[in-house]
Predict the structure.
Amino acid sequence: MKRGLLIALVGCSGSVELPSPTPPPPWGAPITGGTMMVTRDGARAVVADPDRDRVMIVDLDSGKTTADIALEAGSDPGRVIEDGAGRAHIALRGTNSLLTLDMATGEVRSQRLACTEPRGLAWDPATDLVHVACTSGELVSFPSGDGDAVRSIVLDRDLRDVIVRGSQLAVTRFRTAEVLTLDAQGAVVARVTPPVVNRLNNGFLGDVPTPDGSGAGSGSGSDATVPAPAEVAWRTIALPDGSMAMTHQRKVGQQLRLSPGGYGSTCGEQGLVESAITIVDPSGTPVAVAPFVHGALPVDVAVNPDATLLAFASAGSKSVQVVPMSAMGEHDDDQCGDSDESRVMRYNDDLGAPTSVAYRANGELVVFYPEYPALVIHGTNMTSDRTVTLPGTIGYDAGRALFHTQTAASIACASCHPEARDDGQVWDFDQLGTRRTQSLAGGILTRGPYHWSGDMTDLQTLMSNVFSQRMFGGSLTHSQLVSLGPWLDRIPAPQSTTFAAADAVERGQQLFMSQDLGCTTCHVGPQYTNNMLVNVGTGANLKVPSLLGVGVRAPFMHDGCAATLRDRFGTCGGGDLHGKTAQLTAEQLDDLIAFLESL
């Protein structure tokens, strides 16, 4: 939606009581990153704009937009790649399709149905196929020119990027940062995750930052190190030497304070997650690199033509950081995640959050700022920077901006809720125990009270407590508070995917609706929740979660004890206090799970 201007006029004499302003309509999609491509010859940029559901082709020398393609509302264009015949391919996440354009003419050549929520794209020059990796776990391969898919295989859910590595393919998973290697037949032959590194204990045991980021807050302090595993692989790209560069997050929080102290750290500005870099060498071995990228939401990475520089877009800090490739040889072995900052060049263009970076053939760095909207082209000599304004009105929503802006603890709401969903992590809170991050997508305003314990009556209460205090976000404006809810509320739940037969889904639905099982005692209505607190045999009264999009929300239960939906019906699911399912056969459970995955 386009945002209008709200102007309030107040007289010079006396006091005037104005009504509470109606918040502007929400604008923009959750930031995904990596939605722009520069052609191999450096002449054009193809910009996918999910905020406005459009794709633009830009002549980078003249600065002119040569094509502006309006898409169906909710298309949510994402990754963009180039094939060998002058065509651009764009993943349309919202319409589950692959869009193909002729870059010379701007003509739409085709729009082919691919799979549920396509994310990653790669063109294979040896086979002239375009590979599409999807949230649903499907990897679909299309002829680059036109025609139906020639192969479709089902891997693990939550796929992200796909990279051609000779006769093999590498596919990443978003929330776990796992890398799957596939042989030419599509079989998984290797799985690796970025290395676990050691960090000083933070959160509950450490000194905590003050809201200004000075790190002078109170805390007991500790010299103990804790394992810090990788998570949320925002972007992975191929490097010329056959290796891959992944920009991702790393979970460094252990037991976290509710109050006082919040999500602080013994290491100054570091919060419960940090930005990280992993290089996967040509043999497939992952190496943790010293964290040269600081700031929340490292959503994109690009390599320059001679492979001497890597550029990272940090949406949370609204900056672009350029690091020498030679620095990638410095391993991450510092307890506080420190690195040589003198080796990092930063760009702050003051145009909002950068979401995509790419290099031209001449070495210029191109940065996409969707709010303005504009491309900023940074020259190689630091004196020839220029801004290319793109078609479209300026877009801004105070709630969306708040959601993606990092706090004094170097974390943003989107750090734990990437793409307004969840990071799949389980956190240990000092007064609550373990709690799994909940998804925010799918009608959040109808799902209060919030948190597993229902202790936050509304979003404004939650933000004042969690964002302002625990995350060191400081005071919030009225505009921010009233804008966040409407913006989040428009984010749809993940699209459903079940690979079961339709009759199995129907049988599962009959089981779910039956009084014998009692599922609908709590999971009712359009959100499949009554928003009540119930003890389902797990030891406490906990919030009934929505089941919309539940199939892509592993792990399950409040403490993440169930790795799969089938595990939820095992020992950790509460037994017959959580739906009377003990009598179900294995085949009936299959049917019930098929129905749940269809929601």
Observations:
- Residues 208 and 217 are 5 Å apart (CA to CA).
- Residues 1-21, 203-222 have pLDDT under 50 and may be disordered.
